[in-house]
Every structure is written in C-alpha cells, then in structure tokens.
Prior knowledge:
This protein is 60% helix and 4% strand. The chain is mostly helical.
Amino acid sequence: MVGVVAGLGAIVFDVLGQTVTRYTLSQFAGFTPLEAAGEYARYAHVEQSVSPWMVVLIMTLGGLVSGLIVFRYAPEAEGHGTDAAIDAFHNKRGSVRAIVPIVKTIASAITLGTGGSGGREGPIAQIGSGFGAWLGTKLKLSGRERRIMLAAGMGAGIGAIFRAPLAGAVFAGEILYSDADLEADVIVPAAAASIVAYSVYMQSLPADVRFMPIFGDALQHKFVSPLELVAYLMLAIVLVLVGGLYVRTFYGTQKLFHKLPVIPHLRPAIGAAMAGLLGIGLLQIFHDQPAILGVLGTGYGTLQIALTTATSLGATLLVVVALMKIVTTSLTIGSGGSAGVFGPSMVIGGCTGAAVGLVLQRFFPNLVAEPEAFAVVGMAGFFSGIARAPISTIIMVRALTGDFGLLVPTMLVTTSTFVMSQRFRLYQKQVPTRMDSMAHRGDFIIDVLEGLQVKDIFNPDRKVTKIPEGMTVEDIVHHLAYSSQNYFPVVNADDKMVGIFCDDDVRAYLYDESLWKLAVARDIMVDNYLSVAPDDDLNSALLRFTSHDLDELPVLDPDQPGELLGMLRRRETIAAYNQRVMELKRESKEDEEAVA
C-alpha cells in the first residue's frame, strides 16, 4: 500500500510540476528548463525568446504562493522534506501530520515549476513517508513499526522518482545516520515498497524512456589505469571543499532569512526573486548561453551536457554553474521554499567533477582521457560526503547514469569524501549512530545490560545478615537497630534460603509488643520471592527490580538450590550501566579520532 501511494504520488508530483512550468515559465517567459536525456516531457516546448524579467516575476509569484500555502497549512513542510522525515523517525515516534505530504506536493510543484532551484526527492520522500506514518497510525501499529513504515515510504518515493528501487531501499536505511551506521530493519520493507512504487510510476512513462536511466543510456566510461586514482583523489579533495561551502552557505542563508523582519509567508518570495535575478544576470554575462540557466530549476539539462560533452561548456562555465547553484538553492530553499536538496547536489557535484576533469586533462592529457567521467564520479562523491550516505549514493548514481564502468574510482571518491566530510552534513536531523537515536534508546539500554552479567557486579564478599526462620520479632528488631541492611534473607536449619523480608515488613509489628515473642521470621517473610543467578544478564535483573519495585535481589547458586551467594543492589546495576555507556562513548570517540 505504501508503494502504491508513493508511486502515484510521484506521478502526480511530476505531472503537476510540468503543468506549472508549461503554463507559467513557458507560457509567459518563454523559458523551458533543459531536461536530461531520459526525462519525459509531458508538454511540447514553446519556441519563443526568453523574457528575463518575466522569469523573475514568475519565480517571485511562485515563491509567494508556495510560502502562503506552506506557512498557512503546514509550516513543517518548508525547506527540504528529507530532514523532516528523518526527524520524525528519530524524535516523533514516526508520526507525521496527514496534511504535510499534500501541502509538500503542491508547494514543491509550484516552487520547482516556476524555476526555483531544488530537487524532487524531498517532496516525494515526504509523500511516501507521510502516508507510511499515517497508515501505521490507522493500523494502530507500535512506534517501531510505524517508524519502519515511514522509512519504507521515504525509500519508495526515492526509488520511484529516480527509477532506482535498490537505491531507494538502501537510502531509507542509510540516510538516517551521519556515521557508518544503517537501519537494517527498514531495508526489506523499503525494498518491497520501492519496487511497487517504481512499477507504478513507470506505467506513466512511454515505452521508449520507461527503462532508460534519467541521464540516458549512452554513458559508458571505462576505468583504464590505477594511476587515474591519483587524479580522482584530487577530485575528492575539491568535492570536500565545495561540499563544506554548500552546507555552510545553505544553513547560513537559512539563518539570515529567519532573522528577516517580515512574516514567514513572504520569505520564499524574496528568496525566489533573488535567485531569479542571479539567474538572468548570469544569462546576460554568458551571452544567452542556455546551459547557464542550470542554476535555476532542477538543473538536470545542464548536468546532462556536463556528463556527455563537458568540453562544449568549458571549465569556467561549469565552475560558475556549480558555485551559483549553491547560492540559488540556498536562496530558494533556505528562505522557506519547498524543494529537495539531492537534485542540486547532483548538479553541483557533476559540474565540479567535469570542471576538475577538464583542468586535469589540460595538464595531464595522458592520465585524464575523459573529463566527463569525472562528472559521473563527482555526482556520487559530492553527495556521499555531505549526505553521509556512501553506499546508497553509489547505487543511485549508477542507476541515474547507467554507467557501471567507473565503480572503482566511484568507491574511492565516495569513501574518501565520506571520511573527510565528518565536520559538516547536509541533513541536520541525522544522528551519528543508533546509540544516539531516541528511536533506539530503549534498545541500547537492553543491549548494554544484556552484555553484562550479575557476577560481573555483585560483591560476594559483602557481609549479609541472614535471619533464621525461627527468630522472634523481638530479636529481629534488635538486629535492625544495629544494621544498615534493608533486605534480610531468611534461612532454615540447613542455612538454605527459604524467604526474605525488608525492614518495612517489620514495622507492622512494632506497635504490638504482645506479638514480639510470638511472631517469628517465618511469619514476616515472603516465601515466593524473586532471585537471580550469577550468569543472568543485567537486563533480566533490572526487569525483576522494576516489576516489583525492589531495591535488592538475592543471588542464588543455580546448582545448589537455596544457597545464598550474596545480594545484588539496584543502584549497582544502574551504576554498571552508566559506566559501560561511558566506556562505549570513550571507545567511539577514540575510534573517531583514529579515523580523523
């Protein structure tokens, strides 16, 4: 069901976005953004000259309408949607308001359809994840199951819109964490939902592009020599620098817009207007070169040229597109506009890679034969670093380009950027590992406690006062007066434990001295008591503590029934847990420092 809805949502979003473009930018401004080779244009291009100021006007109106819709009905739908889904998984028990995906779909289609710089994955991720969360709530599933449904919906949306079901499934499990961790439980459900969503979405495409990668099926580069890896390492360093610039610019712009003394509804219009002005300014500088307008919209058409004939664009234009795409995306989405950040990342990484390839080819022609190959690897390496998702990114770029000849350099660059980009990340709601996620806080406690045993913490040498079962209350009262012990095991003549009582149990007899010599320990004690064995794990012990609100448990020898070995205290168990957590954090920090 999640897959079907995600697939239909992808169709609706695609149709709606292209419809907005056709009857706004194309109709009144004469501007139809360039498309990738495998994209399906649902409307014929309108052949007329571009009206620059009309582009700015339409983008401004699009930002205004999008802002009014978002901030009126679902303020949490502003910005890029993937972060919202990640936040819901970790901190909101997988809950998403049902209206959010609807608002996100409409607002994002308007933002992108009117020329805003952004990607399609954020809205589609929120459509799938929102329905998954809603369905989980309606079916009264547990918090854990609802989170899985949410993540599966996110993966299904990604798998459909990018025609990459495997990448969508892995993306759903990997994008939740910033370190090398994976939400393994969501992979299989996400794979199933992603396959269904992909199958549904593909039915809306004509047969000639239905199974074609988005950037066409003509990209077939080859990895020739291991010496090329040196050049690819140089690319990785450049990608890390550009990635850091992207993240800092994006969130710096977002902070500046939040400080603007205007109502939030107007901020997306201001951001869109500034992005539009930048776009038409670049168009004038580069003498109406259509590829420069890749800084607006998705930018996939310009990226297509960089992937196939980078030389025709030149290193200068490619660098300008990459850097200005950072600015226009920050203005569009950082101002509160609704769109994704994956698409712009592909354009920035691809254009940066192509530019690096052209420069290296100029100085090392024997080493770099195909600068376009650097564009393909740049797409994967750039997003891997800033999104903290190397595995799914490798799979995603292979699916987008259909180019499997560059797997080795792609793996090298993606892992290199992942390691070198630890100080910044594009998705702020990611947590480092499952240990840091509220979704797994209880699991982590159990995991830590199950790794410790009773014998690891209880002290068998600590003196425990045993009470014979025939001792009178009078004698017991005198024992209590000189003891700091709270729980007293009761033993029989063979020194075998037969029961236990606490000091509160004795208080009932204190005000009736006539019972002091009549009542004995056997009358006070509880014979149906809880105990633990030395090999029991501390999770089992803690469950026994909490089930009866006890502070101590007797530790008995499992091979000799009734043989008391000592007492386990609740505070010792909690202290052992805290100590183990600190050790794990210290080990994790040491590992991070070693990697750094």
